[in-house]
C-alpha cells in the first residue's frame, strides 16, 4: 500500500492498482418541507458528520426539529454530496431511528430516509414505514438519529 489512510480530512492512496478516495467532515443541515415551508432546527442538533470512501458516503448524527409550522409534505434534509441517479428512478432507503418525542405519521412503525431526486439534488426525505411496506410522509417535531449510506 502506498499512501496512508487515517485521520481527519481528505486522503487518497493506492492499494494494489486501485486508488482510494477518503474524506470525512461535518456540515450544517438545511431542513425543509418537501412541498414547502422551512422547519425550525433545534439548537445543537443541526450538524451531521459524514465519511466518504470511494463512491460510498455515510452520514451520521442527530437532527432536531422544533417546529414544522407552515410546512407541507415530508421533512427533508440536505446531504453533503449529490447521490448517484438510480436506474429504477427511486432512491435508496436507510433506517432512521426517531428519538426524543417523535410522533411517527399514520400507522408508521419506523422512520426511513429516501433520496429525493437522486442524480440532481443533494437531499433526502423522511417517510413513515408501515409493516405492509406502504409509506407516508413524515413531518413531525423531535430529534431524529441518522445513520444513512448512499452512492455518489
Low-confidence segments, ≥5 residues, pLDDT <50?
Answer: 1-7
Structural class: mainly beta
Number of domains: 1
Strand content bin: over 45%
| Residue share in helix | under 10%
The number of E-state strands comes to 12
Largest sheet: 12 strands, antiparallel
SS summary, helix count: 0
Give the N-to-C terminal Cα separation: 25 Å
The pLDDT mean sits at: 81
Query: Using only CA atoms, what is the Rg?
Result: 17 Å
Order of helices and strands: EEEEEEEEEEEE
Shape: globular
What topology does this entry show?
Elements: E1 9-15, E2 18-28, E3 31-33, E4 40-41, E5 47-53, E6 56-67, E7 75-78, E8 93-99, E9 110-115, E10 123-129, E11 135-137, E12 142-151
Antiparallel strand pairs: 1-2, 2-5, 3-7, 4-6, 5-6, 6-12, 7-10, 8-9, 8-12, 9-10, 10-11
Verbal overview:
- The protein has strands at 9-15, 18-28, 31-33, 40-41, 47-53, 56-67, 75-78, 93-99, 110-115, 123-129, 135-137, 142-151.
- The protein has 152 residues and is mostly beta strands.
- It has one domain.
- Strands 1, 2, 3, 4, 5, 6, 7, 8, 9, 10, 11 and 12 form a twelve-stranded antiparallel beta sheet that branches.
- The chain is globular and about 50 Å long.
- The two termini are 25 Å apart.
Report a brief summary of the structure.
This protein has about 150 residues and is mostly beta strands. The chain contains no helices and twelve strands.
Amino acid at each position: 500500500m502506498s499512501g496512508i489512510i487515517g485521520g481527519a480530512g481528505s486522503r487518497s492512496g493506492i492499494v494494489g492498482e486501485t486508488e482510494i478516495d477518503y474524506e470525512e467532515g461535518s456540515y450544517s443541515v438545511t431542513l425543509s418541507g418537501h412541498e414547502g415551508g422551512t422547519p425550525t432546527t433545534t439548537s445543537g442538533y443541526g450538524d451531521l458528520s459524514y465519511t466518504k470512501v470511494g463512491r460510498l458516503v455515510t452520514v451520521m448524527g442527530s437532527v432536531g426539529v422544533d417546529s414544522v409550522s407552515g410546512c407541507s409534505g415530508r421533512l427533508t434534509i440536505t446531504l453533503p454530496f449529490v447521490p448517484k441517479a438510480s436506474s429504477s428512478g427511486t432512491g435508496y432507503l436507510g433506517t432512521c431511528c426517531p428519538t426524543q418525542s417523535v410522533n411517527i405519521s399514520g400507522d408508521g412503525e419506523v422512520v426511513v430516509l429516501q433520496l429525493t431526486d437522486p442524480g440532481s439534488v443533494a437531499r433526502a426525505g423522511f417517510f413513515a414505514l408501515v409493516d405492509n411496506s406502504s409509506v407516508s410522509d413524515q413531518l413531525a417535531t423531535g430529534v431524529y438519529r441518522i445513520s444513512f449510506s448512499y452512492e455518489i
